[in-house]
Design goal:
This is Sulfate permease, MFS superfamily. InterPro entries: SLC26A/SulP_dom (IPR011547), SLC26A/SulP_fam (IPR001902), STAS_dom (IPR002645). It is found in: Membrane. It comes from Flavobacterium urocaniciphilum. It is a multi-pass membrane protein. The chain is mainly α and 524 residues long. The strands form 3 sheets. It has a 4-stranded mixed sheet with strand order 3-4-6-8. It has 22 helices and 8 strands. The chain has 2 domains: 352 residues, no CATH class; 102 residues, Transcription Regulator spoIIAA (2-Layer Sandwich).
Length: 524
C-alpha cells in the first residue's frame, strides 16, 4: 500500500533521482542508437508503473546501461526498431511468467560478498566514468558503464584523453557543485532549508554560472549541456509502436528471451543490492519484482520505450537522498514526464559537470574505503570473492564481474566445506596416541579425498576414535573409505578403531537401496 507519511523526504529524494536519471535516460538512449525520447519513456514507466507495483521501497528502475549492447545488436539484426519493440513487449511477458513461477527466489543464493563487491565495483565505475564529464569532455555518452567504450577508448584511456580537452568553466562548475553537495550533507542543511536538496541548489547555481560564463574564457559549450527535444513535434516523432506482424519471427523471439533473461538477472542483483542499501533493511519480494518489471517492459515496448531493469545508480542516489518509501520513485517518474513536456528549454541549460558532481559523490559512497577494510578484516574467504567481483565489474561489465565473483565464492564455500567436514590435526600425534576424528553434520563425496588422506596419515600402533554423533548424513563414498580403513588398513598398521555414532559392527550396504536404509546409531 502506498504511504504518504514521509512525503517530504520522499519528494526531495524523488527530485534528486530525477536530476540523476534525466541525463542517464538520454545517455543510454544515445548509446543504444535510438531516439532520446525512448530513454525518457522507459524512465517515466520505470518510476510510475514499476515503482507503483514493486514492493521495494528504495529501488528505482529505468533504461539500463547493461542492455545497451543487446539493444544495438538486436535492432541491427531485426532491421527495424518497431520489430525490436515487439521483442521488448514479449520479454516483459516472459518476465511476468518467471515471476508467476517464483523463479525470482534464485537471487537469494547470491553471497553477500558478491553483492557488496558489485556495489563497490559500480561505485568505482561511476566515479571513473564521471571524471571526463567533470572536466568538460563528453565524447562518451552519459550512463555508459562498460570498460570498452563505443568511441574506441576504455575507462582509463578516456580519462587521460579528457585532459587534452579540459574546460575551465566545466571544472569550476563541478568543483562548486561538489562543495555545495558536501557542505549540504555535512551540515544537514536540507533539514534547515525545507524542500531544497543540495543537488537542486547545485543545479540552479550551475545554470546561473553557465549563463554568466557565456562569452568569456570560462564559457561552457552547448555540447556540455543536457539535450532534450524542445517541441511536441520532436517528441511525437520519437514515439514508435511494435510491429505485431513479426510475431512469428524466430530472430525476434531469440531477442525477446535474451532481453528477458539478462534484464531479470540484472534486476534481481540490483534489488538484492537495494535491500543492502536500504537503511531500514526491508525485504523485497523478488517474484513480485519480476512481475513488476514484466508489466513495465510490456508497457514500455508498446509505447516506444527501451527495456528496463532495476538500476543501482538511481537506487543509490535515492537512498543517499533520504528516501523512505517507494513514493520517491514514483515522484521521480512523474517529474520526468512533466518536466520533459513542460520545461525542456530550462533543463537544457544544465551542465553535465554539475550532474557529474552528484554522481562522483554517489560513486565514492558506494565504493567507500571502509567497505574494503571491512571485507579484508573478514578474511580471505570473504575478501577475495569481494575484490574479484569489484575488479570484474570495473574492467569487464556488471554481469561478467558478478559471475567471476560468484565462481570465487563457490570455490571458497567448497573449500571451507572440505575443511570443516571433520576435525583432525595431523602432525600432532605419535605412535601410541589416541586420535579423535570429529565428523561434521554433513559429510559429502567432496570430502572423500581429504578424509582418505587423513586416515592414511594416522601412525601405526594408534587408537582412533571416529566420532559421528553429530552427523546427520554421510555419503556412500565416505562410508566405503571408513569401512576399508576399519577392515584392512587399521589391521595392517595395528590401529585400534572405535566408532561413535556409527554401528561398530556395520557392514557397508552394497546397493543404493540398502544404503538409503542405513541408519546412524544416534538416530536409532
Amino acid at each position: 500500500m502506498l504511504s504518504t507519511k514521509n512525503i517530504k523526504s520522499d519528494a526531495l529524494s524523488g527530485l534528486v533521482v530525477f536530476l540523476v536519471a534525466l541525463p542517464l535516460c538520454l545517455g543510454i538512449a544515445l548509446g543504444s542508437k535510438v531516439d532520446p525520447i525512448s530513454g525518457i519513456i522507459a524512465g517515466v514507466i520505470g518510476g510510475l508503473v514499476i515503482g507503483f507495483i514493486s514492493n521495494s521501497q528504495v529501488s528505482v528502475s529505468g533504461p539500463a546501461a547493461g542492455l545497451i549492447a543487446i539493444v544495438v545488436s538486436s535492432v541491427e539484426t531485426l532491421g527495424t526498431f518497431q520489430i525490436f519493440l515487439l521483442a521488448v513487449v514479449l520479454a516483459g511477458v516472459i518476465q511476468l511468467l518467471l515471476g508467476v513461477l517464483k523463479l525470482g527466489s534464485l537471487a537469494n543464493f547470491i553471497p553477500n560478498s558478491v553483492i557488496e563487491g558489485m556495489l563497490a565495483g559500480i561505485g568505482i565505475t561511476i566515479f571513473l566514468k564521471q571524471l571526463p564529464h567533470a572536466v568538460g569532455y563528453d565524447k562518451d555518452f552519459e550512463g555508459d558503464e562498460s570498460f570498452m567504450q563505443t568511441d574506441g577508448e576504455n575507462t582509463f584511456s578516456e580519462i587521460l584523453k579528457a585532459l587534452d580537452y579540459v574546460s575551465i568553466g566545466a571544472i569550476t562548475v563541478c568543483l562548486i557543485s561538489l562543495l555545495i553537495l558536501i557542505l549540504w550533507d555535512k551540515y544537514k542543511l536540507q533539514n534547515k532549508v525545507k524542500f531544497l536538496p543540495g543537488a537542486l541548489v547545485a543545479v540552479i547555481i550551475s545554470i546561473v554560472l553557465s549563463l554568466l560564463f557565456a562569452g568569456t574564457s570560462f564559457e561552457i559549450s552547448k555540447e556540455h549541456l543536457v539535450k532534450l527535444p524542445t517541441s511536441f513535434t520532436e517528441i511525437k516523432s520519437g514515439l514508435s509502436s511494435p510491429d505485431f506482424s513479426q510475431f512469428l519471427n524466430v530472430d525476434m523471439w531469440i531477442v525477446a528471451f535474451t532481453i528477458a533473461i539478462v534484464a531479470s538477472i540484472e534486476t534481481l542483483l540490483c534489488v538484492e543490492a537495494a535491500d543492502k542499501l536500504d537503511h531500514e533493511k526491508r525485504y523485497t519480494n523478488p517474484n513480485l519484482e519480476l512481475k513488476a518489471q514484466g508489466i513495465g517492459n510490456i508497457i514500455s515496448g508498446l509505447v516506444g520505450g527501451l527495456p528496463m531493469t532495476s538500476v543501482v545508480v538511481r537506487t543509490s542516489a535515492n537512498v543517499n537522498a533520504g528516501a523512505k518509501t517507494k513514493l520517491s520513485t514514483i515522484i521521480h517518474g512523474l517529474l520526468l514526464l512533466v518536466c520533459v513536456l513542460a520545461i525542456p528549454t530550462v533543463l537544457n541549460l544544465i551542465p553535465y559537470a554539475t550532474l557529474a558532481a552528484v554522481l562522483l559523490l554517489i560513486g565514492y559512497k558506494l565504493a567507500s574505503p571502509k567497505l574494503f577494510t571491512k571485507f579484508f578484516s573478514h578474511g580471505w574467504n570473504q575478501f577475495l570473492p569481494f575484490i574479484i567481483t569489484v575488479i570484474g565489474v570495473v574492467t569487464i561489465d556488471l554481469l561478467k564481474g558478478v559471475l567471476l565473483g560468484l565462481f570465487a565464492a563457490i570455490f571458497f564455500i567448497l573449500r571451507e566445506n572440505l575443511r570443516k567436514a571433520y576435525v583432525f590435526n595431523k602432525g600432532e600425534y605419535e605412535d601410541g596416541d589416541q586420535v579423535v576424528i570429529h565428523l561434521a553434520q554433513e559429510v559429502s563425496f567432496l570430502n572423500k579425498a581429504s578424509i582418505k588422506e587423513s586416515l592414511l596419515a594416522i601412525p601405526e600402533n594408534t587408537k582412533v576414535v571416529i566420532n559421528a554423533k553429530e552427523t546427520e548424513y554421510i555419503d556412500y563414498d565416505v562410508l566405503e573409505i571408513i569401512e576399508d580403513f576399519v577392515e584392512h588398513q587399521s589391521i595392517d598398521k595395528n590401529i585400534e578403531v572405535k566408532l561413535k555414532g556409527i554401528d561398530e559392527n556395520f557392514k557397508l550396504a552394497k546397493s543404493e537401496k540398502e544404503f538409503n536404509n542405513f541408519k546412524l546409531k544416534h538416530k536409532k
